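ok so heres the complex, two chains, lmk if somethin looks off
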Amino acid sequence: MGGPLLEIRNLDVAFATPRGTVRAVREVSLELRRGECLALVGESGSGKSQLFLGSFGLLAASGFARGTVRFDGRELLGPDPAPLREVLGTRVAMVAQDPMNALTPHLTIARQLSEVVLERGVLDAEAAKKRSLEVLRSVRMPDPEARLRQYPHELSGGQRQRAAIAMALMTQPDLLVADEPTTALDVTVQAQVLEVLREARDRGLALVLITHDLGVVAGIADRVAVMYGGRIVESAPVRELFAGPAHPYTAALLASVPRLDAALTRRLAGIEGQPPRPGVEAPGCAFAPRCPATTEQCRVAQPGLRAAGERRVACHTPLVRLGEPS
Amino acid sequence: MSARLLEVRGLTVRFPLRRAGLLATRHWLTAVDGVDLEVAAGQSVGIVGESGCGKSTLARAILALLRPAAGSVAWRGTLVRPGDAPALRRMRREAQVVFQDPVGSLDPRMTVGESVAEALVALAGPQPRAARDSRVAATLQEVGLDPALAARYPHELSGGQCQRAAIARAIVARPALLVCDEAVSALDVSVQAQIVNLLSELRERHGLALLFISHNLAVVRHLCDEVVVLYLGRVVERASREALFAAPRHPYTRALLEAVPEPDPEAWSGDRAAGFVQGEAAPLPDPAAAAGCAYAARCRFADQRCRSEVPVLESEGDGHLIACHHWRALPPPCGFPGPAGRPASENNGLPPAVTGR
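and the predicted structre for the whole thing:
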């Protein structure tokens, strides 16, 4: 019981393409405790989605994942497919970004919700119906009884995303992985959906939130992991990270976000240059070409993760003092 | 007072809804409802609102890409009527547009250079080859693209590079107004910051006016002198940047500002979430929409009058306009994120929940 709920060690995800192997995730290790919310932050192409698709055997046919993924102590990526099959969709649930594609257009909400538990034999029809209503209430769906009889196209965008989250909660999972769950929503609706996720976490659900929105992260996460070029470059408790980022990339990312509460400046900070192109292999730190603090060492040697308290940083020239490589 | 470029009066766009049967009455959805708007030369006007509030429809109607049901658009004082080809051409030469999807707004079978050259020839007429090529190269350089990329196709570029190319295409014939329809919304924050900076530079360098449509209030605050808030097709508030962000009057504007997640965990402590507006903006077909304030269903201050009488825009002075029956009686919106110049530390970006307390 005491161990982490999810433990990922040295995970690599790569894709076979006509131009050779493209590495999307490199040597990523992370842990998630029960009831904890981890935000995985990064820009498009940083590997943040592939990390969790790879962990749960959901990669495209050309992709492969190597490494160790333990859920509640059981290896998911081993030769035995049984543990993965057992936990996926029951104890581990996922919510995708696009609420329309997550729902089947020709089935009622009632049917889609109960199917999740009926297919796996978790509940009988009567109990499934009762559970459906419960989860719809827990995601604060307006008028849940009426929604059950409706089809996805009859719901608004926010309601669809609530339905998709409700579907994921049907089996009472221990872990919910939500990939950009609010990106397609308006700010007012986004605030409501985040509130629903926060309540679910307060009831003991472990939550992984994959996002590029640092405002969303600040509002819900306990811990943040920042990805760049397929690697985790910094991870820290949320307040620590926002109060003083240690990796120059984290700092640049935070400075890029225009804020309502900051004094107006003529220019936004931004980050010069382009993110690394997938498939291009270079020695050294992936952020070196865009980093304001690059040294010769950064260009030749990949920095290892170093610890400072609960913080982990992979940088030769960090912005806070760190201990020896762990 | 600088010259007025664009003047929009009472612009209304309606879309027909599907009839229940052949003999049933046809209902209409009013996407844009009597919008007035002006853009002066060099001015930057932001249009904000949630999806479905008519932001993009308004932009399309202004550029005559859609036929409005009522209202008028004037360019440099001359009415641009649908079908009036010469007037339309004059406006198009000077009013260009950049859309949200950077890859989709470039022709995949044309190189970036060809795309930009095509726009130049279409708007400024045929050019000698050398002049055309040097103009294209100079424009690419201006938007921060290596002129060597002119020979590349859109699929070979990143999203940010494609958006720069789309901007190059829009500015190559030196327009006076650039309409940006969610032009930075699909980009990563670091790239978004680059494009926002590029738009600021173009404004400073060429006095380019912007009509900047976005749901991102922080970007609008950064880029726009004046802000128009739309709700279900109607202007509910219009003010200078300073007035709107320091003292928002309309309950919807306040709700919108409250819901913006600030990248600051400290700002989230306490019961901030308790004040969030509930529900979603659901467009009402006529005639239901015609009776009362469109925001009444979600507004915590709404009363009987709001449901029966459409509020008109009232002036608070200094050009600050509000369409709300109760704006004078609302609790003061003190403590909102500060206007330009106020130090961020003064309030942690934590707006108090607007409740009846």
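quick notes: The two ends of chain B are 43 Å apart (CA to CA). thats all i got rn
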